[in-house]
Amino acid sequence: MKAWVFQEPGQARWQEVPDPRIKDAGDAVVRVDAVTICGTDLHILKGDVPDVRPGTVLGHEAVGEVVETGTAVTTVRPGDRVLISCICGCGRCRFCREGAYGQCVGGGGWVLGHLIDGTQAEYVRVPFADVSLHPLPASVSSQDAVLLTDIFPTAYEVGVLNGHVRPGDVVAVVGGGPIGLAAIITARLYSPDRIIAIDLAEARLDAAKRLGAEAVANAAEQPERLVHDLTDGLGADVVIEAVGVADSFELCTRIVRPGGHLANVGVHGAPATLHLEDLWSRNVTITTGLVDTYSTPVLLRMMAAGRLPAASSLVTHAFELHDMAEAYDVFGRAADTAALKVVLGGPQHTAVALTG
User: In what order do the strands lie in the sheet with 236-241?
Assistant: First the structure.
């Protein structure tokens, strides 16, 4: 089969690799029907995630069909259409029993495209299939379902729930990429007073307005002033950091109100300064987190019921699976291409812009 293989920082290649095989009784092999690229994959290519070894197939977000299962797998079988969770869980360790699958110490956690071969391939081996795979209802398309593999549970769990968004809150989302936009969508489930989106790209700010942000600010044009004006000088009740760079994190600490919550979602590849000399007396709660995906079943039911927007609201470009290099180029140059989320495979077969 062919797969997108990490070579070294700055280089990856679509190349022939051995077909995946069942290694453990809890494994499943899935034929990939739709896959997408995550901002974390870009961090890996930059060299920000040194755990990823040369020769690793990248990717942790996909939907496909089960083609083979190990002898211990009981919840899925060959022929089932499934969502592949970005997080695997052994289901037995202390963390898995608490639903904290991202911290699994039994061989799971974020392993796909990180510590083992991932989903940007024609086939993928998924460990702990009973926990890591979610059967899909016929009413949910592959394009829609692939958004539930990572960005929606990440934004919802690490941003909205960790940030304790409540009715009437002012929520500021710093970063208008896929995670930030998913945070806007899921924050709206809690009836905030208003959502403020901050980003450098006008195309992303336009998308944020379309998806529910009542106010937007360009990050280069004193966004602190807008937040100050819209909150009577107090600051936002909840600030969600969805970029992963020092400047955006430090901006978040300046616009959160005393007693507010700062939920860091972004993947940081370099240190950020924590100004405790300013923060210690302001009763600010700062949370970090790797997604656990405990919310995936709930989000899947919501999507099946039409309570979450379709992929067309976030997917801007579609490609065939073998166009991985072009898809990475488009996604990696989002400031030039206005790319939000790209999807490869599925029912679409041409590399064309779908929206925006």
Answer: 215-218, 194-199, 170-174, 236-241, 256-264, 285-287
**Environment class of 345 (CB within 10 Å of its CB; exposed 0-12, middle 13-18, buried 19+):** buried
How far apart (Å, rounded) are the C-alpha atoms in residues 276 and 161? 24
Cα separation, 42 vs 48, whole angstroms: 9
CA separation, residue 344 to residues 10, 14, 50, 324 (Å) = 21, 13, 26, 8
Task: Encode burial over 45-74: b for 16+ CB neighbours within 10 A, e otherwise.
Answer: beebbeebeeebbbbbbbbbebebbbeebe
Q: Spell out the SS3 assignment of 13-68.
A: EEEECCCCCCCCCCCEEEEEEEEECCHHHHHHHHCCCCCCCCCCECCCCEEEEEEE
Among 23, 43, 36, residue whose Cα is nearest residue 118: 36
Q: Convert the pLDDT of each residue in 206-238 to its tens digit.
A: 999 999 999 999 999 999 999 999 999 999 999
* Angle between helix 324-332 and 39-46 (nearest 10): 90
Q: What is the pLDDT of residues 18-74, one digit of tens each?
A: 999 999 999 999 999 999 999 999 989 999 899 999 999 999 999 999 999 999 999
**Amino acid type, 209:** K
What is the rounded distance in angstroms from the CA atom of residue 318 to the CA atom of residue 34?
Answer: 10
Q: Which amino acid is at 353?
A: A
Which pLDDT tens digit goes with each residue over 152-172?
999 999 999 999 999 999 999
User: Whole-angstrom Cα distance, residue 34 to residue 346?
Assistant: 5
Q: Residue 175 in contact with residue 197, Cβ under 8 Å? A: no
pLDDT at 347: 52
57 with 2: CB under 8 angstroms? no
Single-letter amino acid, residue 243: V
